[in-house]
Write a structure and sequence with these properties.
The structure holds 2 protein chains of 2 kinds. By secondary structure, chain A is mainly α. Chain A is built from 10 helices and 5 strands; from the N terminus they run ββαααααββαααααβ. In chain A, the strands form 2 sheets. Chain A has a two-stranded antiparallel sheet with strand order 1-2. Chain A has a two-stranded antiparallel ribbon with strand order 3-4. The longest helix of chain A has about 30 residues. Chain A is globular. The model of chain A has no long low-confidence stretch (mean pLDDT about 75). Chain B is α+β, with helices and mostly antiparallel strands. Chain B folds into 2 domains: about 170 residues, Immunoglobulin-like (Sandwich); about 30 residues. Helices cover about 35% and strands about 40% of the residues of chain B. In chain B, the strands form 3 sheets. A 6-stranded mixed sheet of chain B has the order 2-12-11-4-7-8. In chain B, strands 1-3-10-9 form a 4-stranded antiparallel sheet, with no helix packed on it. A two-stranded antiparallel sheet of chain B has the order 5-6. In chain B, helix 7 packs across helix 8. Chain B is extended. The chains are: A mainly alpha, B alpha+beta. At the A-B interface, strand 1, helix 3, helix 5, helix 8 and helix 9 of A face strand 5, strand 6, helix 6, helix 7 and helix 8 of B. Chain A: It is a multi-pass membrane protein. Chain A: This is Probable membrane transporter protein. Chain A: Belongs to the 4-toluene sulfonate uptake permease (TSUP) (TC 2.A.102) family. Chain A: Keywords: Cell membrane, Membrane, Transmembrane, Transmembrane helix.
Chain lengths: ~300, ~250
Amino acid sequence: MQLYLPIAELSVNAVALLGLGGIVGVLSGMFGVGGGFIITPLLFFLGIPPAVAVATGANLVVASSVSGVLAQLKRKAVDFRMGGVLLAGGLIGSAAGIWVFSLLTKLGQVDLFVQLSYVVFLGLIGAMMLKESLGALRRARTPGAPIRRAHVHYWVHKLPLKMKFRASGLYISVIPPMLVGASVGFLAAIMGVGGGFIMVPAMIYLLGMPTKVVIGTSLFQIIFVTAFTTVMHAVTSQTVDIVLALLLILGGVVGAQIGARIGVRLRAEQLRILLALMVLAVCLRIALDLLLTPDELYSLAPGVLP
Amino acid sequence: MILRAGLFLALTALPLHAETIVAGLSQNIVSITSDFTGSEILVYGAVKRDRPSPGDAPLEVVITVQGPSTPVVVRKKERRFGIWMNTESARISSAPSFYAIASSAPLTEAMSETENLRHEVTIPRAIRAVGIAASVTDAPRFLDALMRLRTAEERYSLQEDTVDLIEETLFRTDIRLPANLTAGNYRVRFFITREGQIIDAHEQVIYVEKAGLERWLYNLAHQQPLIYGLLALFLAVAAGWGASAAFSLLRR
């Protein structure tokens, strides 16, 4: 069934979009990632203009995150205080990111920058997570091995402005979470993603938060950052396509619920290995696009009169 | 006698335009609705004569349909530091978003180069690329790329020998408008020629506009972007909450 999108100005297959939304929703519910890092490249692939794909992707992430966070709330797995601090940083980062995005669009380097960011971040994080969770799995299988401490104290814990985060069982400075929030918000706006795939490992490895509250808290924060990004894109460039978003959302919200149920059944280490493998696969796919000779060397972009 | 002579003069003076076009379109409004997958327009007409056709050289018909023009940037990728990135770019001040040419004979036979230049009939003539040579070293390649990409998107087409011409009088052709249509006024031009020279030209307009919900959303997005953004947000939150509520009901 073909459907015409009013903002993207093209006709697409509605069923394919519903399915795409569904897959992303399952990922969102399982891993606490918004799924933007999968949907945005796929929308490019369908021929949706990059600006529309990025802005609409943000809108979709709002819906799947709301659905996901409600499931997490029932398990009391959201640290609101930590979420609030991350959010404060996230909004600053997102505003800066939208500014840089429009600058790069003018220079014609936005695609390259987005692809490079994907390759670098997905590669780094995927490799880190895979190594860590494989190690954890091995330790769990060999009884008697030394137990790793929940979090190691290093310079991050010596900064001022300390705050108690009861749900996470942490007493740390607000500066590291603010910085994490800001850098994720920045990347989120540029890459058209929620940033969960960066946020989740940052919370575990940098802030030392317990895995059980990480997903809920990350989703909670992502809702607001992507909501802000959606409205900013709608106001500055009119690139949010509601029809496209609704199709993806319909599939997405259902998928998120299913994903959250699957997530409960899997063990944390297995979950992290799966996420790591997926992150690496997307990274490899994008890297190939940059390295292999493209079929068409030329591309068109709407111009502005000098 | 004087009256008769005057009438004779008047009759011989007129026939510079002895053949004129009478033309029509199957529809002059195209509405883009949510189920829009492109549209086929029947372009037809007749050649009106007030005396027998000269009959020496064959009559040919050329029809062009041109969508609204916008500026375009053409970028070229090159391998730098091992990866492919955009390097050179050329700004084209105005290129039609849609351009179709249909003719009753190969275009070079149907119309002389002089007439093509004067009336900007072929695709390269319809693209305005003033000053492109100053911005890139290889300007023709960038123009070729623009035409190649737009042809692949079904935006540009040259359909020679697709106008059916009967008895040098009746003509018809179908022009396909693709699904990725830009809204605006589409100029339809008709030319009749003999020996490559234009005898008569005629122009009509097809109005392409978004309709129904599509139109409402498009206008809202551009005129009230904040309200549109908040609407998008509201729908997203409602859908997320709705799905969550529905699933917890299901589990009970």
